[in-house]
Amino acid sequence: MPLERKLERKLLWSGDEGYEQARRHAVWNGRKPARRPAGIVLAEDADDVAVAVRLAKERGLQVSVRAGGHSTSAAGLREGALLIDVSRLASMDIDPLARTAVVGPGVLGQDLDMALDPLELFFPHGHCSTVAVGGFLLGGGLGWNWRAYGPGCVLVRAVDVVTADGEAVRADESQNSDLYWAARGAGPGFFGVVTAFHLELRPRPAVIKATAHNYPLAMRGELLGWLHGIRHEMSPIVDPSLCVTQHVARSPDGPTMLLGLFAFADSEREAEEALAPFTNAPLREKALWRIDPAAVGGMQDLTGVDDLYPAGLRYSHDNIMSNASASALVPALDAALTSLPTPRSHVNWLNLAGSPELPDMAFSLLGDTMVELVTVWDDPSRDADMHAWVIDHARRLEPVTMGNQMSADSMASRGLGPDAYFAADALSRLEALRDRWDPDRRFVSFLLGRDTV
Ligand SMILES: Cc1cc2nc3c(=O)[nH]c(=O)nc-3n(C[C@H](O)[C@H](O)[C@H](O)COP(=O)(O)OP(=O)(O)OC[C@H]3O[C@@H](n4cnc5c(N)ncnc54)[C@H](O)[C@@H]3O)c2cc1C
């Protein structure tokens, strides 16, 4: 049977009814790029993926992939490619005794929570519960409690992959180990389609405690200086972030600084001890308000991050990773913190210090701090300005930047190359593996500036 017929109504060529809807749906961001794939395959299983890759080969098309569509630059949407939408590959097969799961790339963080919580199991998915594991894990995945676990991809034990020839293979430590190496961090530079991730699960922390302090923006130097200064001493079971925005606290007077702290502990006492440096900090007396440490019922209660990122709004996003001292980083951030262009726009400071050493895998570059710059708006006429604000402030941070975390796909807009994401030897190895696994360049690679027009 011709390959096209095998896919039947799951294949939409440009111009077909339903194509435009599928094209727009492929991008979570309310800002939809004009790029038009030649066709879109709404795959339902790994066989559909394999047929789609062979069809692309037959037609001389490149292949791109999307899972949850959260790539801010819509890295999966490529002009003239065959886009394989794997969001329907969302099965979860959990073995509670072995503490393992086999999940499809379309599984969302919230799906994992719903399935794992009753089994007292846990997986560190993205902080926003609508991010899919597909792009999250391929890009490394800095999820909940990541300072204790490391990036989520460390807990990937194997991947099922459709290769450039349309063949389905398993990759793990003992077979196709170089493909396994690449699947843990290559992100949009991966040269295959992952149809399943084999995950190692963690026991659900016995106690999850959260606390929040809201500080006036005028305290930014003092607060950030203190927080950044103690980043290496914070307990590894604390997941801390400082979000500067008007939106979360709904302050009528402009942005405030919301310090959110989560402790993932084995006992009440361990959680209290981990949060003590914050609950006892002298600075807390200057907070506009505080929520004292309280137990969180389950991961489903941690929806604060989702409130920052409703679907349908327009987003631009960049980040930097830094090893700079407080005296260098804090002044460098001042211009961004004092010029947020809309109430929902925000700057996040995240502590990455103290995580376990990275194993040998493509995900290889990690600073001790990450700063995210995010603009959020709804009026399309502001697109250029909102994007320019992000790029401008990311550029101003370049003197304190040691790399970028792939989630923002920042390289496309700032003209950066993949060396922003990888240690030099890891990038060389990745490109050598691309030659081996995808010599004809069936798969698109990193989204570069020239691809975005
Ligand atoms: C609101 C929001 C919150 C976020 N929070 C976090 C966070 O807490 N931590 C974090 O680390 N990141 C976070 N991110 C970034 C996010 O992890 C990345 O953007 C990730 O790529 C999204 O995965 P996705 O599958 O939803 O996106 P997609 O856009 O579908 O995928 C991104 C790219 O990954 C590749 N890809 C995806 N699936 C496959 C597959 N099965 N096979 C081959 N290639 C594939 C493709 O190249 C695709 O273009 C967040 C992003 C947003 C928008």
From TrEMBL:
Co-factor(s): FAD
Pfam families linked to this entry: FAD_binding_4
GO molecular function: FAD binding; oxidoreductase activity
Residue span(s) of domain FAD-binding PCMH-type: 33-204
Domain of life: Bacteria
UniProt keyword list: FAD, Flavoprotein, Oxidoreductase
PROSITE patterns reported for this sequence: FAD_PCMH (PS51387), OX2_COVAL_FAD (PS00862)
Heme as UniProt keyword: no
Family: Belongs to the oxygen-dependent FAD-linked oxidoreductase family.
Protein's UniProt name: Oxidoreductase
Organism this protein belongs to: Streptomyces flaveus
Lineage: Bacteria, Bacillati, Actinomycetota, Actinomycetes, Kitasatosporales
